[in-house]
């Protein structure tokens, strides 16, 4: 639902999502109370109808000509395409209809067009990257020369700011295709299959004739009303009915936030909901910062942070001794789950190679266990990323910092440091931490700036003289170069 948020001077709008569950619903026409399983079933029927039409759109228009037409931003008459994906697809004449004998309203078709349009718009970026890599295919794909790196970055739009890890991963993807087929692919459409269609309802593409949401007077609940089918293949509009669902708002949704229509995802007999809301927050400044928090990555110490003050005469002084975020227990559990996951994957692959019908039951149980372990790893990574980001933002708030400088290691690829160290570095959720840090810092108007990692631990923070690194004095038997010593001014401390 399109609702404008009134903003005051020095404020900005911040849109976020809160995960909630739809626990029950009431059919408005009959007063019937829907249990969670019945509600999930009906939402699933609607999601299946949307997914079928979305898949048809992707199969028909997932080609270079149509993707280029959508990405061009103009229609056949030269008019600019709307920002909403479903409106852009209709302007281009890309329509879709439900299966024969099934009756849906126009808003159901909108959700399918919105989902397909978002997917097709995202293909353009991947197509540009793949095209740039193919146009400058190196003599040795495993090791590009500096000249070849300059060429591939020049061939990709915005390639000078693209992380090297993205280019290397796409190169490996193309190399695998060459190994299987003996030639380079023509484009991304030959390299990748048609994207899978998710079972979800993008209610944001609808209006009041399909779904509405209103906040209660006490501000702690919201009422979501939407039309759902009473059978998997509704033959007429009589097979659709209004269902009212009461949502308990989590404490992360402020009282002054404006609610938007959510996204519904039926999964495992539950309806998981991404409830979008917009709230006013202080606007982050681009310049004029006097107190900053520097955050550095580590292996054993996940994050290290220190606050600095910029004086009027140009001097920079440290505020306190800094702090560290240690997550040894979580990282150890993450490592155990990874080993279990690898073991289950190996056994499942072995059963698949045997092709013995008598082992089908065991293979299915192993596959289900592998899925559950993967979910636990995903949830653990997400919790770790949120906790680390929350800790960094709290450090900035406590010191009065208005900007956080974060070392940009999102695309780091570990290599050459031993099997154990490479694995531990690769499992670090740096990208998620950076994303959550920006999200949480926006609540208090704190800017987050990423800086290149080169030489961030090389120079003395007092006199900028190159540092000498050695073993930590409190851990003389621990290998590594954890301690930094300045040969000029005599400063010493943890290199992070």
Verbal overview:
Helix 4 crosses helix 6. The protein is globular. The strands form 4 sheets. Strands 1, 4, 8, 9 and 10 form a 5-stranded antiparallel beta sheet that branches. By secondary structure, it is of the alpha+beta class. The chain has 11 helices and 18 strands. The relative contact order is 0.11. The protein is 39% helix and 22% strand. It has a domain of 166 residues: Nucleotidyltransferase, domain 5, CATH 3.30.420. The two termini are 47 Å apart.
Tell me the layout of helices and strands.
Elements (H helix, E strand, L loop, with lengths): L10 E12 L2 E3 L5 E2 L1 H26 L2 H9 L12 H7 L14 H30 L10 H10 L8 H18 L6 H4 L9 E2 L8 E5 L5 E9 L10 E9 L9 E2 L3 E5 L2 E13 L8 E7 L3 E10 L5 E11 L1 H27 L5 H40 L3 E5 L11 H8 L3 H12 L5 E5 L16 E3 L12 E3 L6 E3 L2
Parallel strand pairs: 11-14, 14-15
Antiparallel strand pairs: 1-10, 2-3, 2-7, 4-9, 5-6, 6-7, 8-10, 9-10, 11-12, 12-13, 16-17, 17-18
């Amino acid at each position: 639902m399109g609702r404008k948020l009134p903003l005051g001077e020095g404020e900005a709008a911040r849109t976020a999502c809160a995960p909630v569950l739809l626990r029950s619903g009431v059919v408005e026409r009959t007063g019937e109370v829907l249990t969670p399983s019945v509600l999930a079933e009906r939402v699933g029927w609607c999601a299946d109808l949307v997914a079928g039409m979305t898949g048809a759109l992707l199969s028909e228009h997932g080609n270079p000509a149509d993707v280029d037409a959508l990405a061009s931003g103009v229609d056949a008459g030269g008019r600019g395409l709307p920002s909403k994906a479903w409106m852009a697809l209709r302007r281009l004449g890309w329509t879709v209809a439900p299966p024969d004998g099934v009756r849906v309203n126009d808003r159901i078709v909108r959700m399918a067009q919105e989902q397909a349009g978002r997917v097709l718009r995202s293909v353009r970026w991947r197509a540009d990257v793949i095209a740039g890599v193919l146009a400058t295919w190196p003599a040795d794909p495993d090791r590009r020369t500096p000249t070849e790196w300059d060429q591939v970055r020049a061939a990709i739009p915005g390639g000078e700011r693209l992380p090297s890890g993205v280019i290397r991963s796409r190169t490996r993807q193309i190399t695998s295709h060459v190994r299987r087929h003996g030639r380079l692919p023509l484009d991304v459409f030959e390299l990748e299959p048609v994207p899978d269609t998710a079972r979800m309802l993008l209610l944001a593409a609808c209006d009041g004739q399909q779904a509405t949401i209103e906040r209660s007077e006490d501000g702690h609940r919201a009422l979501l009303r939407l039309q759902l089918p009473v059978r998997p293949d509704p033959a007429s509009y009589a097979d659709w009915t209004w269902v009212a669902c009461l949502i308990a708002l989590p404490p992360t949704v402020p009282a002054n936030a404006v609610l938007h229509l959510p996204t519904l995802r039926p999964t495992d007999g539950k309806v998981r909901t991404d409830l979008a809301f917009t709230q006013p927050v202080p606007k982050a400044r681009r310049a004029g910062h006097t107190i900053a928090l520097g955050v550095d990555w580590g292996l054993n110490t996940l994050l290290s942070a220190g606050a600095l003050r910029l004086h009027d005469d140009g001097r920079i002084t440290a505020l306190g001794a800094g702090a560290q975020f240690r997550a040894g227990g979580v990282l150890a559990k993450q490592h155990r789950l990874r080993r279990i996951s690898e073991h289950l994957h190996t056994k499942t692959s072995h059963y698949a190679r045997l092709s013995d019908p008598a082992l089908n039951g065991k293979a299915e149980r192993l596959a289900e266990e592998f899925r559950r372990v993967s979910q636990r790893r995903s949830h653990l990574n997400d919790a770790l990323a949120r906790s680390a980001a929350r800790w960094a933002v709290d450090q900035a708030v406590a010191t009065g910092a208005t900007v956080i400088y974060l070392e940009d290691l999102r695309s780091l690829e570990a290599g050459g440091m031993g099997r154990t160290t490479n694995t531990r570095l690769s499992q670090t959720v740096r990208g998620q931490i950076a994303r959550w840090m920006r999200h949480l810092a926006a609540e208090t108007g704190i800017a987050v700036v990423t800086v290149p990692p080169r030489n961030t631990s090389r120079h003395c923070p007092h006199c900028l003289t190159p540092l000498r690194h050695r073993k930590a004095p409190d851990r003389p038997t621990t290998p590594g170069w954890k301690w930094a010593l300045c040969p000029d001014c005599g400063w010493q401390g943890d290199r992070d």
